[in-house]
Amino acid sequence: MSFIAKWNDLPAIGNCAQCQESLLFAVNNALPNHGFVNDRTGISTAIPISAEDEAIIGNVLARHGTSIAHYQWQVSGMDCGSCVAKIETALGKIDGVSCVDVSMMRENVTLGFDDAHAHNRDGIASTLTKLGYPAQEKGSNSPSAKDPGASCCGNGASCGSDVKASTHADGKDAAPQSLLRRVAPWSSDNDEIAFAAICLLLGGLIGAIVPVTAPYAMSVASVLAAIPVMKKAVRLAQSGAIFSIELLMSVAVLGAIAIGESLEAGMVVLLFAIGERLEGVAAGRARSGVKALMKLTPEQARRVNDGGFENISPRDLAIDDIVEVRPGERIPSDGVIASGAAEIDNSHLTGESVPVYCEMDAEVFAGAIVTDSPVRVRVTRAAGQTMLDRVIELVEQSEKHKAPVERFVAKFARIYTPIIMGLAAATVVIPPILFGQAWDEWVYRGLALLLIGCPCALVISTPAAVTSALARATRIGLLVKGGAGLELIGAVRTMAFDKTGTLTEGQPKLTAIKTRDGYGENGILTIAAALETVTSHPLARAVVEAAENRHLALPEVENAKTIAGAGVEGRIDGVMYQVGAVKRLKASVDAATAKWLEDQEDDGSTAVVVLKDGQVIGALALRDVAREDAKSALAELNRLNITPVMLTGDADRVARRMASELGIDYRAELLPEDKLNAIAALRNDPDRSGPVAMVGDGINDAPALKAADVGIAIGGGTDIALEAADAVAIKDRLGDVVNLVKLSRAARRVIRENIALAIGLKAVFLVTSITGLTGLWLAVLADTGATVLVTINSLRLLIALKSADTMSKD
User: Fold this and answer.
1) How far is the C-alpha of 757 from the C-alpha of 409, rounded, in Å?
2) Number of separate helices (H) and strands (E) present in the chain
3) Which of 163, 374, 471, 562 has the greatest number of CB atoms lying within 10 Å of its CB?
């Protein structure tokens, strides 16, 4: 697999999914037989590229890589997927717009303009405001300010992390407060509710004072109350979004007034305004998790220099800079402790409620809080590359990776409203014309049916659940790259695991000691550990660590040195000792020791001997051991009807021992390409059903993570594995893979409940409206109520998996 272009090298395209898709289409058109694919980090192909092909690709990249500039606007008032669709439709019709990215969670809109039409962006804020979504371009106080180099995720980083929206509420440039705002006892968010209520109260008051004017007063009041809705309906229709809920409301209100139901028409407007406000509150709650993440990075970093300290923005920190963080402050960038030690609160990333003690060389993350004593941190990741940046970016990008059911619902919703309008028209016309029924009665029933035509509850049913589940995942140390991955994980029935570093600790541990000639275990271990301190070999570190765990005092070693390819040697109290492989040290052993060494090797361990003046006095066995939670996690997966399989490049005897210990099936002696074949074999196995997941942590796991239906990376793994995966367990714990499956299944269940709730309520009131059992009031309540109920049901996922919180405290 070779890359022909990296998205990081094409700032004009950046993270914009539409621009990436357009470039991929152009490259495949230019070279149709190469099968280019979007490999997340760029465009790649498995077919070799010739010099002639490179020239063709270069021309395509030159045309697409610089012709588009992206701009961002901060937008408020988006409450559901229907709002997003209206904005996309309106902005997509503007000349020069090549791509539209609307994010309800981030409350922003990103547009790509070609160079010839860049000036058309000047009217975007005005257009959005007229549609009912107040907007301000990011990056400057001027509406025409360009955000240089911005992509659909802003400044090449995550949206909202580096670019702040300019608002009139900041500092000296704040606009004078209007008279209404100074005297009104309600907030601006409730203006429409207050306006409708005041109009209806005035209409009712005039009708009560002058009874003869009562019908007319309430009719006028209802029309006045509906003016904001009607104006928005007209603007949406002009911009291409004809079948909007605002149009349905306008028709229903005017129709109700025409048949003499003016009070009911006014109440419909008031209830609609209240419902819209409730939707806004619910959407704001769903957005709060993403906004909280964006506020975790401190505004200032205290960089250490020769003259003392310098306060700078975290964005200006460079790798290897030293920053001081004092108690109560947040760490400005990922790094390692350079000096000092402290209890550090990592709950924003790991979900651990108890601060973790960190000392020299311990890894720390941006946004973590130092709780008790100052530390100095050496920066290891530049701005935009920290783990917190990655979390924010993944949460934001997740909106683009829609779940399959979400894509289906969006398509269905586009035809749902026109169908309802046609059915409402048929309800009004057919009974009076064909059966001689009263026009007033069937017009009223048709209007009630019309109000049921808003697809908001149906459209938001999936994204509300997905967003809540993703927010919950980040709180318990899990990252999922979008709704597609989230939905798929819950359907997995076979899960393949890498062995080393995934099912095991990834580093050798001392597992057995063989003694001779009156030496005890501690005596043999003390001698071996003293010698092994001279080398940094992983086996040597394991021996020293074992001695430290037993609190053994190590003697002083003289003339210590390594024996190339064999081990180490040195003198203790004048006596020569050696530690190493028995064959390479050419040591002779008795039959019992030889049998012990053979048994340890057969069991998957590495065995070394300890020599005193050339004679074997003991031996040690070391091997990579299973994680503490591996067996329980695999048992829980079996209980969830998921079959675990171990894929490893280790020798068959080593894999067999580990598989036997953990109680799972295995495939051994696999190269990276063999793991791909193993994944394909698992997928095509007629005895297995459902998607296949791969769990891994290393560079050699990346191809399998991408080849599987869904890839899950363990957080302590390599960056390549983390990028290739669809989900990441940050806390480096297998139990979190189980939590991920449970959360996915909970989200799938809530999605099904939401869809059933949205369609079920519509179906019930469809029947009751046609039969005349319910009127306009209940029709509006059904529409608004369904949306609010769907959102509230989705918010339940924010408290899912309470056991995961308990585990974080352990």
Assistant:
1) 14
2) 26, 29
3) 471
- Buried b / exposed e over 568-605, threshold 16 CB at 10 Å, is bbbebeeeebbbbbbeebebebeeebeebbeebeebbb
In 3-state terms, the chain is what percent helix, strand and coil (to 5)?
Answer: 50, 20, 30
Active-site annotation holder among 321, 334, 498, 726: 498
498 tagged catalytic: yes
**Dist. CA 729–CA 480, nearest whole Å:** 9
| Three-class DSSP category at 612 | strand
Cα torsion angle, 384, 390, 396, 397, sign: positive
Q: How far apart are CA 503 and CA 661, in angstroms?
A: 11
pLDDT at 27: 86
Query: What does residue 675 show for φ and ψ, rounded to 5 degrees?
Result: -65, -35
Report whether 790 contacts 757 (CB < 8 A): yes
Q: How far apart are CA 678 and CA 683, in angstroms?
A: 9
d(CA 482, CA 398): 3
Integer Cα distance of 691 and 490 in angstroms: 9
- Would you list the DSSP string of 144-205? T---TT--TTSTTS-TTTS--B--TTSGGGPPPPPHHHHH-SS-GGGHHHHHHHHHHHHHHH
**Pairing of the two strands 308-312 and 301-305:** antiparallel
Q: How far apart are CA 414 and CA 459, in angstroms?
A: 10
67 exposure class (CB count in 10 Å sphere: 0-12, 13-18, 19+): middle
Secondary structure letter of residue 503 according to DSSP? I
DSSP string, 587-609: ----HHHHHHHHHHHHTT-EEEE
Torsion of CA 719, 723, 729, 734, to 10 degrees: -80
> How many CB atoms are closer than 10 A to CB 545?
16
Counting as low any pLDDT under 50, the low residues of the chain are: 1, 140-175, 806-810
In this structure, what DSSP letter does residue 339 have?
E
Nearest to 199 by CA among 227, 229, 231, 222: 222
Residue with tokens 């405290």: 809
Q: Check: pTM over 0.85? Answer yes or no.
A: no
> Which H/E stretch holds residue 133?
none
Using left for φ > 0, alpha for ψ between -120 and 50, and beta otherwise, residue 498 falls in: beta
Question: Per-residue DSSP letters for 547-575?
Answer: HHHTTPPPPP-EEEEEETTTEEEEEETTE
Q: Which two tokens stand for residue 352?
A: 């651990």
Residue whose tokens read 């894509």: 407
pLDDT digits (tens, 9 = 90+) for 678-722: 998 998 888 888 899 999 876 567 678 878 889 898 875 555 556
Q: Which amino acid is at 236?
A: L
Produce one character per residue of 462-486: b if its CB has 16 or more CB atoms within 10 Å, e if not.
bbbbbbbbbbbbbbbbbbbbbbbbb
307-346 residue pLDDT tens: 789 999 888 898 899 999 998 899 999 999 999 988 888 7
Distance CA 227, CA 69 (A): 38
* Token pair 């002058």 in the structure block, residue: 210
538: amino acid identity, one letter: P
